[in-house]
Design brief:
elongated, alpha+beta, 4-stranded antiparallel sheet, Elongation Factor Tu (Ef-tu), domain 3, OB fold (Dihydrolipoamide Acetyltransferase, E2P), 6 helices, 6-stranded antiparallel β-barrel
Length: 453
């Protein structure tokens, strides 16, 4: 009996090992996830992010330096602050003007002095003109008499010298008058400059608008150097806003003026706003070898709800098709394993796998690899070929389709073999995964076999 029991034990062990090996290497049955083919509307878009900006912003600066000693009042009679409504010419702030007022007084005194000097030089010019006239008369008489007993040679020469000296003195007087007049002009310019500096101490609003940024406080000293310090940022009209959107160079070819745009902001979840492309700026920027262009989008903000500098999630409408055949994007990305393909088309599928095309037409022997391109639609994505799969009993069968644009969820397709209502495969669920989903993970797991055991 012992040899018999020994043989039976060996056979039982072999049978148990074979059963364990078969169970370990067998795959659980698969059930396919499907989605219905249907007609509908497809909106192909380009996604991007941008910032909401006021359409026209005025940066108000100071042309003189000094201490801010007070703020003005806004249209509501309150002190100028963030969000204040201001009118053109309304005082925003005032800089201590005592130093500039002293310079103004000095300039006035200098101008008065220059004018007095000019008047003196003009009067002196008249005296020099009289001396010249007298010297000329004397010289004319001396020339008529000439050197003789009545007029000595020395006197003759003296009259001539006096005449020439008077002429020279007159020219000097005229030059002095021109110099004094220039001094008056210089003093007048200095006075105008001093007056302007005093006026610059009062910072006034150049436009009607709303203050969206106040960058100074009372008691703060502003320093005017090569660039005027910025004190206030005024938006002319917050009822009209712009979106500044960074668009990748691969997508910018599908952006044009007048294009419809929709966008959302985190401040108002679930709400969609409308806009229109104004222009594409040509000054591209490069960041980490990625070239982007700034696109301006105009939007109406009559409600005043959109605030400056909110981040916007933007969708550019590239193509809008109505009543087109749609399948989920997952249907174009899913591939079966070779043994799941119907035998009569398996050879064709394998041949396609050996000669791949840009479209995802080949069956991937390892599910999850070699999947089709995923992303938002562009015009370049139009008119490609693809493949979807339908269930045929225990097998799956391919159907060739022409692939159009996608909205990120569904893709427009055309195929003579694919009809509305048909179910295309978008994924699969193994039996053990289904059991795992329906089993309470917190319930006691009695005699549960671990993987690999």
């Amino acid at each position: 009996m012992k040899p018999l029991l020994f043989v039976l034990a060996i056979l039982a062990a072999l049978a148990g090992g074979g059963a364990w090996y078969w169970h370990r290497n067998s795959k659980p049955p698969v059930s396919f996830k499907t989605a219905e083919v249907k007609h509908g509307e497809l909106l192909a878009t380009i996604s991007a992010t941008g910032t909401i900006e006021p359409e026209e912003v005025i940066d108000v600066g100071a042309q003189v330096g000094g201490l801010i000693d007070k703020f003005g009042t806004d249209a509501d009679g309150k002190q100028v602050d963030y969000g204040s409504n201001v009118k053109e010419g309304m005082v925003l702030a005032h800089i201590d003007e005592r130093i500039y007022a002293a310079d103004l007084d000095t300039a006035k005194a200098t101008l008065d002095q220059a004018k007095a000097t000019d008047q003196h030089n003009v009067a002196d010019l008249s005296r020099l003109q009289a001396l010249l006239d007298q010297a000329k008369n004397d010289w004319d008489r001396a020339q008529k008499i000439g050197p003789s007993d009545a007029l000595s040679k020395n006197d003759y020469d003296m009259y001539h010298a006096n005449y020439e000296t008077a002429k020279a003195n007159l020219e000097v007087g005229r030059a002095t008058v021109e110099q004094s007049k220039a001094a008056v002009a210089i003093a007048q310019s200095a006075l105008d400059r001093a007056k302007a500096n005093v006026n610059y101490c009062t910072i006034a609003s150049p436009v009607n608008g709303i203050i969206i940024d106040r960058r100074v406080n009372i008691g703060q000293t502003v320093v005017s150097s090569l660039s005027a310090p910025s004190l206030f940022l005024i938006a002319k009209d917050l009822r009209k806003m712009q979106l500044w959107i960074a668009v990748n160079e691969a997508d910018v070819g599908n952006i044009h003026a007048g294009q419809n745009v929709t966008f959302t902001v985190d401040a108002f979840p679930g709400e969609t706003f409308q806009g229109t492309v104004n222009k594409v700026r040509l000054n591209a920027t490069m960041t980490q070898n990625v070239v982007t262009y700034t696109v301006e989008v105009n939007t109406d903000n009559s409600s005043g709800r959109l605030l400056p500098y909110l981040t916007a999630n933007v969708q550019f409408e590239v193509k809008k098709d109505e009543n087109v055949q749609l399948v989920p994007n997952a249907a174009l990305r899913w591939y079966p394993e070779v043994q799941e393909v119907a035998p009569d088309v398996r050879a064709k599928v394998l041949a396609a796998d050996e000669n791949p095309t840009p479209a995802p037409e080949a069956v991937n022997p390892e599910r999850g690899k070699g999947k089709g391109k995923k992303g938002h639609a562009r015009a370049a994505d139009m008119d490609k070929t693809g493949m979807v799969w339908v269930q045929d009993g225990q097998w799956v069968r391919p159907i060739d389709v022409n692939v159009g644009p996608t909205d990120g969820t569904n893709t427009e397709i055309t195929s003579a073999d694919l009809k509305d209502g048909m179910q295309v495969i978008v994924g699969e669920v193994h039996a053990d995964e289904a059991n795992a989903q329906t089993t309470n993970p917190f319930a006691p797991q009695m005699f549960k076999r671990k993987k690999g055991k």
